[in-house]
Amino acid sequence: MSLLKLRLSVIGTLAFIIAVSTLFFTIVLSLLGVFNILGLAFFVILFNLIQWLLAPYMINALYGVREVSKTDQPKLYGMVESLSHKIGVKMPKVMIANISLPNAFAYGSPIAGSNVAVTTGLLKTLEDEEVEAVIGHELSHLKHRDVQIMMLASVLPALFYFIGYSLMLSGRLGGERRNGGGAAVLVGLACLAVYWILTLFVLGLSRLREYYADRRSAMTVEDGPRKLSEGLAKIVSTTSQIRGFRREVGGINSFKTLFISDPDHAELDAVYLQQARELTADQRLIQSVLARKVTLADRIMEAFSTHPNVTKRLKALQELSRI
Which end of the chain is more exposed for a tag (fewer CB within 10 A), N or C? Predict the structure, then answer.
């Protein structure tokens, strides 16, 4: 996927989400009481804003994240420092999450600052050069302001979910006393339908942001496509072998969008790695993924995932290596 096509896809998807949300929100306001709906919308936006501001502290507590200094982790700190300069972002806090799952994530807010975290499992599983490429991916998320963009995109479906649920509940409770009870239920169902449609587009936007971050990392880190490909393949393969990983990271499901790879799809993605599970040859592992055909079932599963199909993702990196 070319850089121009990728940028247009990201902008187009976000514009569609905003346009559809505005259209249906206007329709709802015209059909029902404006002030009650606006009050609910204000509450939902305020709730999401507070969640965004406080999310870094929740993540730190949930995943046992601690900040490390240059003295504590000179190699890791040096990677983040060097890549931050190359990518053009302010040096974030360097964090380590005390979980065995190999992964990494970037997060932050105006009150908590920017953070890049790697797990203890990632440092044990990946080689240094692969860790470097993964960090480049996470710093790219900060460069592209993906945390803010995804928060904005996620608020819009949430509005329709809460409005729809509220209207259905009020319609059922007040249907016997008001003639408009049935209409409220129908509008509520329509809002929930819009919620599901927008959610699919938000997931699509999330996948595009992953491709975008992969590309910048691959073009910034020396021999980036190979290093990131090997790192992603190892993350997927190792995650699928860790028993109970959902209990370890499943405390707040929405936070999985932060990870470089979706843990919930690790077992499915690992089907592609069965013939190279021993990881004795990194390129053999990559080729085992690339050799797989992306089926219709794979595409359907991908539509409900925050991250791209692993085969498509590695194929995109292979194309970059030929540029």
Answer: C
CA distance from start to end of the chain: 12
Side-chain half-sphere CA neighbours of 210 within 13 A? 28
DSSP 92: P
**Between these two residues, 271 and 157, which has the higher pLDDT value?**
157
More confident residue, 285 or 39: 285
User: Does 274 score more than 70 pLDDT?
Assistant: no
Q: Please report the pLDDT score of residue 122 as a whole number.
A: 94
Helix (H) or strand (E) holding 25: helix 3-31
Environment class of 297 (CB within 10 Å of its CB; exposed 0-12, middle 13-18, buried 19+): exposed
Determine how many CB atoms are found less than 10 A away from the CB of residue 165: 15
CA dist 92 → 56, 105, 111, 144 (Å): 13, 12, 13, 14
DSSP type of residue 305? -
282 by DSSP, 3-state: which?
A: helix
Q: Among 293, 300, 237, 229, which Cα is nearest to 269's?
A: 237
Residue 51 — φ and ψ, nearest 5°?
-60, -40
Q: Identify the helix (H) or strand (E) that includes residue 196.
A: helix 181-220
Nearest to 114 by CA among 90, 88, 150, 86: 90
Catalytic residue annotation: 138
Q: What pTM value is reported for the model?
A: 0.80
